[in-house]
Structures are given as structure tokens and as C-alpha cells.
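Protein entry
_____________
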Amino acid sequence: MHSTSPTLWVVATPLGNLGDITERARKVLSSVDVILAEDTRRTGKLLQSLDIKGPGFISLHEHNEEKRIKKVLAHFDEGKNAALVSDAGTPLMSDPGYRLVRACREHGVRVVPVPGPCAPVTALSGCGLPPYPFSFLGFLPRKEGQMRRLFESFGQTGATMVFFERKSRLRETMQLAYESLGNREFAICRELTKDYEEFINGNLADWAEVSDELRGEITVVVGPPVLEGPASEEDIFRMIDAEIASGDKPKIIARRIAEKVEGWTAKAVYEKVTERKKGA
């Protein structure tokens, strides 16, 4: 897998199920000169479990990423390759690596993603809520005011929202989501790809019914606004404005909106989409 020029491979690793490692990821991790790991001990155990005899490691996490960039670039200047991994899933998805990737591109280093497991996409594929358009919020801010503003800002787009949350803060977060967004469908997706994988679906108005005993890694999906009764023309135009940003064709947008609302056919919504586009 060595390139003719120094390369940073951005490698996705299993969320929990080791069977999700790709053959390409195996080859890259076995062939690079060094692995940049969020937690070198955890990645070392992963490679051992996968029977991959990898190279040495350089620690790269949220607290030292800026300091490590110069060292990593010097490594590339020697003509060597490196693989970037996070603790699980796809690097940069709420994990360190963005600054390094940017610096590598500015430095002329080739950057190649090696796609694979990704918690937000895995949650969307299994929860049964509208998968697109969606906004990924990563880990939410710790302060209540910042979290509330984030919900209110992205809530106006009408898109599904996906974020990570710690079990100790989950109930507080769900209550704040209800206060900020109103009653929407949600899915709590925990222990994705693992033996105890679970999808808990409900409405934010009933969030208190969720057990306090949830364990493991948690990904939360909050669906788009729920319209009660037939949608008004104003509702339709608001949904169209949010959907147009996706860049999809009018017929696709119309069909998607019609599936969410009462009293409107795809043909009727399509007419409103074309009307909106002409007036834009």
C-alpha cells in the first residue's frame, strides 16, 4: 500500500465488532511506517486482536494535536507514510485529526481516506428516522446555554440531528432538546455493532420514560419537526427551503416531503418546489 509519495492514510477502524475491519484497512495498517493513534494502548490491543503486526506509534489526541503536527510533517519529509486512526470508527468525526489533515494538504502531503465504520451513519441506517438531510453535531457543549443555542440553530434547518452523548448527561440533554426543539422523534443508539446493540425509539415529549440504566457508547438521533394534522402551505415552503440546500432534484425533494406530511401529494409538493425555485 506504499505510495510513490509520502501519504497520510485516514483509516476507519471497528466501532466494536472486529469483523467490520476492511481488507484495505488491514493492508494499510500493516504496511505504513507509523500509526498516529488517539490512544496507543487501545490501538495496540486492536491490532493484536486483529493479528495485524503494525509499526510503531505516535500519540495524537485532542490535547497534543497542534504540538504533534511539526513532528509528523518532518516524518513525511523523510519520505515515510503514516496512518491516522481514532479510538473507534472514522477519524475526525468528533475526534482529533482535522488540523493534521489540513496541515498535510498545505504541506503537499497526499491524504487518502480509507472508509469504513462510522457511528453517525451506522445510527442513521438502523434507527428508522429520516436519514437525510442530517446535521452531525459531534459531542455537545457542556454548558446549558451553549447547548440550547446549538439546538435552536440547527433545529431551524428542519434536518435530522445526530450527536454523541455521555450516559451521565443523557437525561439532561434530552430534556433540553425537548425544550429547544419541541416534540420530535428520537432514537438512542447504544453499543453500535456490539453484542448488546440497542435502538430505543420514542418522542421527546416522553423522554423521561427512558431508563437511567443505559450503558456503553451512545449516539443520539433527533428527527425533523413533527407536523400534527395537515401541513399548511407555509409549512411546505419552510420544508422546501430546508430541503433545497441538499441539492437534490425537485422530484426527489417533493417525494421526501410528501412522505412526512398529511394532506399533500408528491405532485402538489413538486409544484411548490418549482414555484419556490423560480422565485429564488
Q: What stands out?
A: Residues 120-225 form a domain with the Methyltransferase, Cobalt-precorrin-4 Transmethylase; Domain 2 fold (CATH 3.30.950.10). The chain has three domains: 7-117, 120-225, 233-279.
